[in-house]
Amino acid sequence: MSLIVILGIVLAVIVVAGVVMYNGLVRLNQRVEEAWSDITVQLKRRYDLIPNLVSTVKGYAAHEKTVLEDVTAARANALNAQGVEATAKAENAFEGTLKSLFAVAESYPDLKASQNFQQLQAELVDTEDKIQAARRFYNGAVRDFNTKRKVFPTNIFASMLGFKEDKKYFELDEAANAAVANPVEVKF
Which of 54-68, 74-88, 96-110 shows the lowest mean pLDDT across its residues? Predict the structure, then answer.
């Protein structure tokens, strides 16, 4: 009789532990999904600002056609990217073309003084800050999920519960890492 009670208690503990692990993984998985959604919302906001910025620059720098076309193409590629890795790669390329757009704007004092351009640039800077915050939140949620999935005893049950793969971080590519290592030179 006592052996049956002990086995019942052990079985109950295993079931409760399994439920707790499963619910923890589901909760963290949902946090990762929410964080990814935050990133896509901010990226969409940025993509919506770019045509206005390009139009403003176009009026001042009509002969800088290739830069404007590159920004437009990079925006289209970023909009069509699917998944974390493809989006990160497209975003890195897009950020590079934005830098070239702002370099063109530096050559036109009238453009830099334009209130419309300044407002768009300020909105873009604000959006970039929000994107960085969303990336940090996403990567933190990914870290928490991946850690939970790998720690004992969850690692034993995670694949059985349907959580087979780690989530991917939203990372800079090698070119972007080089750009971060060598900051932009500002001349007055």
Answer: 54-68
Residue by residue, DSSP assigns 133-156 as HHHHHHHHHHHHHHHHHHSTTHHH
- Which of 158, 139, 143 lies closest to 20, judged by CA? 158
Instruction: Give me the amino acid identity at 36.
Output: W
**What distance in Å separates the CA atoms of residue 183 and residue 64, rounded to the nearest whole number?**
24
- Using a pLDDT cut of 90, give the percent of the chain over it: 36
| Alpha carbon distances (Å) from 10 to 3, 23, 56, 154, 176 | 10, 20, 70, 17, 53
pTM of the model: 0.73
d(CA 4, CA 45): 61
Give mean pLDDT, residues 27-42: 94
CA–CA gap between residue 120 and residue 126 (Å, rounded): 10
Q: Which domains does the chain have, with CATH numbers?
A: 2-181 (1.20.1440.20)
| Structure confidence at residue 186 as a pLDDT band (50, 70, 90) | very low
